[in-house]
Write a structure and sequence with these properties.
The complex is a heterodimer. By secondary structure, chain A is mainly alpha-helical. Chain A has 6 helices and no strands. In chain A, helix 2 runs antiparallel to helix 5. The chains are: A mainly alpha, B alpha+beta. Chains A and B meet through helix 2 and helix 5 of A and helix 1 of B.
Chain lengths: 182, 77
């Protein structure tokens, strides 16, 4: 057993993560960004759950709650899968904020109900984009169980995006910059 | 308004994406809402006002960060 202090261990871990992020990225490093996104979505889905207004209130108030519950489950499931593979997922608010690729805004509480849905679709798509890369990397690394969890996460995002798009009267891939070649 | 589609070398880390977004988003004449950096495709899509900015200026902002621009297309938006 090593007799390093928690601070010394953290320093080693950070140096290692920094190295991975800036040399050869791996699936676990992308997953820290996924956890960051999920963390931002946790807060944002609550914001929309609380502040949504208009004739869709009852539907969306309930839907956003369902979405943050599912989101919460993925947070734990992905992190535990990482731990089981021997990685150290981000575990403080500060780290999660730094890793998050999504933005939030107190002014968003005043958005129209449809704009809130549209914004969540954007965030899910951005998260899916990172997930796709993580799937490829997990495959290369032959971390098949993690790949499997990531594919299940993507599957869930695909379904949620399709349904939210349908709510807005759109096709699943409509207005999706990631799919549009132009 | 012009619509630019810029192909970059493969982006490895998600934080590259944010750096590019900030650099291009900070230029004059950029339609920020249209700006999208696509991680897996390693592409930048952005609309810009060609009286205030140019594709060369956008490319330069990206290259200054150390990313190679492979090719770019511009058409009327």
């Amino acid at each position: 057993m090593s007799d390093k202090t928690p601070q010394e261990k953290l320093k080693e871990e950070q140096a290692y993560k920094d190295h991975v992020h800036h040399t050869k990225i791996n699936a676990a490093a992308i997953a820290d960004h996924l956890l960051g996104n999920i963390h931002t979505l946790h807060v944002k889905l609550h914001q929309y759950h609380w502040y949504v207004k208009g004739p869709h209130f009852y539907t969306l108030h309930e839907k956003f709650e369902e979405l943050y519950d599912d989101n919460e489950e993925w947070f734990d499931r992905l992190a535990e899968r990482l731990l089981a593979s021997g990685y150290k997922p981000a575990s403080t608010t500060q780290e999660l904020i730094e890793y998050s690729m999504l933005s939030e805004d107190p002014a968003n509480k005043y958005l129209k109900a449809e704009e809130m849905v549209d914004n969540i679709i954007d965030d899910f798509r951005e998260t899916r984009e990172l997930t796709i890369r993580a799937i490829h990397l997990a495959q290369e690394e032959e971390n098949f169980t993690f790949e499997d969890t990531l594919i299940a996460f993507k599957d869930d995002l695909d379904t949620k995006i399709w349904m939210l798009q349908a709510f807005l009267g759109k096709e699943a891939l409509e207005d999706d910059d990631y799919h549009d070649e132009d | 308004m012009q619509k630019a589609n810029i192909q970059l070398e493969t982006l490895t880390c998600p934080s590259c994406l944010q750096k590019i977004e900030n650099a291009v988003g900070g230029l004059r004449g950029i339609d920020k809402d249209s700006l999208k950096v696509m991680f897996n495709a390693s592409r930048v899509k952005v609309n810009f006002n060609d009286e205030e900015s140019s594709i060369e200026e956008i490319e330069k902002a990206i290259q200054n960060l150390g990313y190679e621009v492979k090719k770019s297309r511009v058409k009327a938006a």
